[in-house]
Amino acid sequence: MSEIMNRQSGLVISAHSADFVWRAGGAIALHVEQHYNMHIVCLSYGERGESAKLWRKGSMTENTVKEIRQQEAQKAAEILGASIEFFDLGDYPLPRDKEVLFRLADVCRRIQPHFILTHSMHDPYNYDHPLAFNLAMEARIIAQAEGYRPGEKVVEAPPVYCFEPHQPEQCNWKPDVLLDISDIWEKKYQAIQCMQGQEHLWEYYTRVALQRGVQAKRNIGITSNKTISYAEGFQSVYPRVTENLA
Amino acid sequence: MSEIMNRQSGLVISAHSADFVWRAGGAIALHVEQHYNMHIVCLSYGERGESAKLWRKGSMTENTVKEIRQQEAQKAAEILGASIEFFDLGDYPLPRDKEVLFRLADVCRRIQPHFILTHSMHDPYNYDHPLAFNLAMEARIIAQAEGYRPGEKVVEAPPVYCFEPHQPEQCNWKPDVLLDISDIWEKKYQAIQCMQGQEHLWEYYTRVALQRGVQAKRNIGITSNKTISYAEGFQSVYPRVTENLA
Amino acid sequence: MSEIMNRQSGLVISAHSADFVWRAGGAIALHVEQHYNMHIVCLSYGERGESAKLWRKGSMTENTVKEIRQQEAQKAAEILGASIEFFDLGDYPLPRDKEVLFRLADVCRRIQPHFILTHSMHDPYNYDHPLAFNLAMEARIIAQAEGYRPGEKVVEAPPVYCFEPHQPEQCNWKPDVLLDISDIWEKKYQAIQCMQGQEHLWEYYTRVALQRGVQAKRNIGITSNKTISYAEGFQSVYPRVTENLA
Amino acid sequence: MSEIMNRQSGLVISAHSADFVWRAGGAIALHVEQHYNMHIVCLSYGERGESAKLWRKGSMTENTVKEIRQQEAQKAAEILGASIEFFDLGDYPLPRDKEVLFRLADVCRRIQPHFILTHSMHDPYNYDHPLAFNLAMEARIIAQAEGYRPGEKVVEAPPVYCFEPHQPEQCNWKPDVLLDISDIWEKKYQAIQCMQGQEHLWEYYTRVALQRGVQAKRNIGITSNKTISYAEGFQSVYPRVTENLA
Amino acid sequence: MSEIMNRQSGLVISAHSADFVWRAGGAIALHVEQHYNMHIVCLSYGERGESAKLWRKGSMTENTVKEIRQQEAQKAAEILGASIEFFDLGDYPLPRDKEVLFRLADVCRRIQPHFILTHSMHDPYNYDHPLAFNLAMEARIIAQAEGYRPGEKVVEAPPVYCFEPHQPEQCNWKPDVLLDISDIWEKKYQAIQCMQGQEHLWEYYTRVALQRGVQAKRNIGITSNKTISYAEGFQSVYPRVTENLA
Amino acid sequence: MSEIMNRQSGLVISAHSADFVWRAGGAIALHVEQHYNMHIVCLSYGERGESAKLWRKGSMTENTVKEIRQQEAQKAAEILGASIEFFDLGDYPLPRDKEVLFRLADVCRRIQPHFILTHSMHDPYNYDHPLAFNLAMEARIIAQAEGYRPGEKVVEAPPVYCFEPHQPEQCNWKPDVLLDISDIWEKKYQAIQCMQGQEHLWEYYTRVALQRGVQAKRNIGITSNKTISYAEGFQSVYPRVTENLA
Prior knowledge:
Six copies of one chain form a homohexamer.
Chain A: H1 2-6, E1 9-14, H2 19-33, E2 37-42, H3 52-56, H4 62-80, E3 83-86, H5 98-111, E4 115-118, H6 128-144, E5 160-163, E6 177-180, H7 185-193, H8 200-220, E7 231-236, E8 240-242
Parallel strand pairs in A: 1-2, 1-4, 2-3, 4-5
Antiparallel strand pairs in A: 5-7, 6-7
């Protein structure tokens, strides 16, 4: 038990309930394998903006959409080995107020993450994504402040990574980290398949993983012995502190 | 002996004979401690542009300046534990031709570096610095090519890091890596003191190391247990490939 | 009648009631000539920030300023051949809340625009302008969402263009489209003359049109047969999809 | 008395009650020496986010923290020769609403500043800083508008300068003005020493001033006669209008 | 015959002999279908840097590599319906001198292209690519100059498009044009298969085309009637001049 | 005489023989009025790329074009009150070699300028312009080096300003200095009229001056007492060092 308590942890902040699967499913599963506690916060279910296929079925209510989306996300999280919670804030637009910030800061305090994954800084196709990025960033900073809920253990300085948006160049997103997810790809693809309402994205994100895999291989050297088939790209927000450059 | 041969190595490409000390002396000494073979190439002695104090002494010839600069650099490299070679290309301006590229590519092939340190991409105060960056980059790419001196062992894909220029913001240089050099700071400061012709820079670069140290500490969390007193900043050119994000 | 209903349409979102004239009057008149239904939304009358001349007359109330500004804008829209509506949200600052977003999204749904014209992303001289840009962008995205007012016809993906701000370089605005408005320039200049309170801008924006005309001519080739005297510049937000590159 | 009324003035907008000391203390003291009326607005006391040392003392309340911070800031302002007022808006996060904007616009109207100093546009370590920047910018623009509180004397077009953030490169802050503060450095350092709760920053910002001093000297020429020991860096928002380029 | 002479034309400038296939094969075939004369210039065969698989076969000479590469490229051009010429300048590095510029300017004059396709402005993995971009740009400008070979018909102002590099985000390449190549995809894939020495790239560039297809579809609207399966992305260098914004 | 020797001076480096008139004619005349020695270097006559109208006259030789261009430039310089010299390096392309650098560095040493005016860093319409910028920058740096022609008086650190290119936004040129040239506008316009071969540009650059005038007025405040009718914009390369911010 105490062993579990001492595990390192990672926090994933997802604007809509499926984002974490396409964009960070590999990172989640990989760190679970490395004995991290991975925790996901879904700010909304994406009931308005990311559930087109469900709505087109007809005779659908917002509540049903949200329920289906929650079930899908929960199943995906389970497959990946992560815990998950839903803020149910509503999407298009996501709200932005002090209460959300504090709620998210409290999650940071509770999880004490060793790294945070969230959306890109810009996205001209989706205003909820950069908003989620900003909520994540500001909540983390509040959670670091000694004067916020004084006496609680503050958060240190977990690195923040932006995961891949749908049209990366249009979002000015430039990956500086390529994570080798070859070994747990099958698990990610299983999680992807939970998203019954967005089947058109399954192959799209499989190809994303394959392309990032080829690029990762290129970045370690074509002639190196290591094989990489699937990867995920991330963009760091902060400089990393290290003792080795190789 | 073969053990030494199998060591990992790092390559430092320095436009003038003192750059490697101010900008990467910590990285060099630190990796030597970690049993890397560190090798330095000085493209020029900086005899024209970086030897003002020597010239002001009067009755100085270019040859004498170069000799003094070489001795200083050699002594500094020795203190840091690195090997060093001098291309003696002349500075202000550094030449740029195929011969230099191939000579540098050949060093890459010989050293087979696991990482490369060189100048920043821009520097409105010094045109030799970005030129050295471009020579280093292009030479590395040529050294990766199977069709260059076919049959030789090609270079894999060593990461390239740009070290800190004199006025970082004016050079659009943004560090994404902070290297903790606290443990070997004394060695770096000893090497710095070899640069008799540029004494005005000793305290400047001591302060740089202290500032980067404070920033590194901030980036791991003020409340973390680790102490960092001195650091060096680097900007990566390529994405890194990794299996862990914490 | 049904013919009119089937016309293509364009939507112009203007922070203050005169912006659309200076910045997009040519585009509006030109597309009206091409049988587009052009519709303008003025978020505010610019009663505070863009009516200096009126206020300096003395014995002026906000209501009178708004009335005069509305009459001017209405007359200009008429000349250009466009329909116009006024949100009357107040300026300096424009409000930003869900209600405005939804009201604007509803206009998008009603108009089903084939393209949208609005302000630049940045403007250090005017905070209402980038805010109008963001409202336009987010409203368009909401109007695309199946889950927003389910059952209504969603908006497809109309391109968004940012029109020219007052000091383009300071706004980081870079035109990638130059629209030849030579043929309808007279109409634009007539509309400009409706803006009695901002006479100092008449010649300024005439010169803007002339400069963009010279640049347009340069971009098709000085030796080409086509003459261009007046143009308007626009910056695209999204990539265009095409089947020809010439 | 009337002489004092006719003095030129400068306005400093500080997110937290100590920011103005580290980042603009030299500029304040220097312009006071030049007979400017310098006025400081502290939007908050930084009671949550910038008072770690106080909180760690234990048995501290928010009110006590705010009182101590106010006393420190007041003492520092006195040493620098500036007047100061406290908005006490609360930090982490600073609020952003129309009331704050108007309150700040009213200060602009009252002070009629010839220049404004405030935070950088970006800061991934502190969301209050760019927010303060945006409040300052927008309030200045409102204060320029004839239609805001019609009849009052409007503000002309005071230049806005962003002062140095804690990790300049990470904030994309690039100084284009270096202010020689050598002559009043002692005053700035005295003001710095008022900040009892942030002693770890005293030496950090002394080194910042020394580095900017070396850079300023470099930018006027190593061989010029003028000596510069300490400087502060600023980034301009607007182009300056001048009649001489030397 | 004269009909053919009057056709519009497009010029493709390719650093190495296979680049045009992966990056612009679709654009070439599509414009051939639209009765354009498409002409390709290969500056080098990529014999050093892009022929790894051939070199690994052993007992290979540079001449053989070049011959094989030429045959492959010629066959691919034939399939796409384009004419092709080889400058055989040598790669890694490509030379850059006045003679190359003039040779390329002369091709521009001869072809009188209505658009030009070439490499991206930056590529940290390949220095020949941005060099080819710069050669293409400068040659086009020289070909526009009345004083270059006076009396010859100058080139007007053909738009220049940068085609997709291997790792687009790392090259700061951002597509603003998506070309629908669905109808001629089969032809492009046939041309791709000519590149026997780079089989590992066949599936990579098939996925690129599929991803750009999905993105193109997204940029015209998911609910629009048009289907797009394959696309190529391009980045424009110059603003386009147009009379319609839809 | 010695008085003249002691005057401050400015150096203008112009790629082609007319550039200095359109882009810096006002700055030159204004500083001459302020008793500066202004000196112009024309790297080429622009005989190939900027003399279209002359070439179209027929029966023209390169020598005649150069002669006419030289006479025009000389006359313009005279009107502005500046000295001028011609390097006659040839344009399209300008050469770039050590000899040119040293020749230009020697001019810097001779003139000992208090500021330097030259071209913008980027220009996709003209490769000679950024090349001239780079030559000017590097020559200035060489002229600062004690080891270049040891014993000569080195250059201090004159600020460098980029003057306005033809299509400013396309060149990523952003003015941060607006120079009020209202008082000497007539002189600039006279100099402009010397350029008989480029009459189409007279009104273009008159409008540029008027637009920059309006912007300058806006940047000091519409309500300020000062009138500005004509201005020139410049972009600084280096931070300025100052003792006052108003």
